Amino acid sequence: MELIVIAKPTLFKEECHLVNQLFEAGLQVFHLRKDNADETGYRKIVEGISPEYHPRIALHHFHALANDYNIKRIHHTESFRKNLTTNILPKNHILSTSIHQLSAIDDIAPYHYSFFGPVFNSFSKPGYMGVIPPDFHLNKPNSNTKLIALGGIGLNQIDQVKKMNFDGVALLGCVWNDPSQALTTFKKAQAKCLAYTQHLTIQP
């Protein structure tokens, strides 16, 4: 079961240090999404992250920065994807996107994986409500695009997401709402996801 961490929407002190700690602990994919940051801000974050981890960063904006750093992952937001004027996507990158309706999965076949949500009520965006019922089960269509659950996912929701048949989880609020606990929270989530991947017994 894949585990992805998405950046806190706003810049904050010690962010790069904490992200490096998450990578050192085994984080495989970090989505850099800062809707209000400019290119300089993006560069500052990337340069604050150890170069050995740059291939694990997925850029949501300023995709050209991938050429300046060893970044292998590009994310197309839903609005960006819908406004693309060509069906030719960049090669030699791992591509991800976002959908908010499962019916849209037919439109994202070229992508390696996609976020879907909000699955639960958001921790970080008050009023941003989950869109699927608690007994939801994902019947995966004939697609190679993995679906990653996003929205309102904390340690207590990972088991439920697994039962829903998603390919992985993306964490945001549960990691960054208390940065002092970010590393501890990540490690607990990582243990749950690894246990599912290795078919081990989940400890409460």
Automatic annotation (TrEMBL):
Keywords: Thiamine biosynthesis. Gene3D superfamilies: Aldolase class I. Residues 4-172 form the Thiamine phosphate synthase/TenI domain. Signal peptide: none annotated. Transmembrane segments: none annotated. It comes from the Bacteria. InterPro entries: Aldolase_TIM (IPR013785), ThiamineP_synth_sf (IPR036206), ThiamineP_synth_TenI (IPR022998). CDD domains: TMP_TenI (cd00564). SUPFAM superfamilies: Thiamin phosphate synthase (SSF51391). Pathway: Cofactor biosynthesis; thiamine diphosphate biosynthesis. This is Thiamine phosphate synthase. It comes from Pedobacter riviphilus.
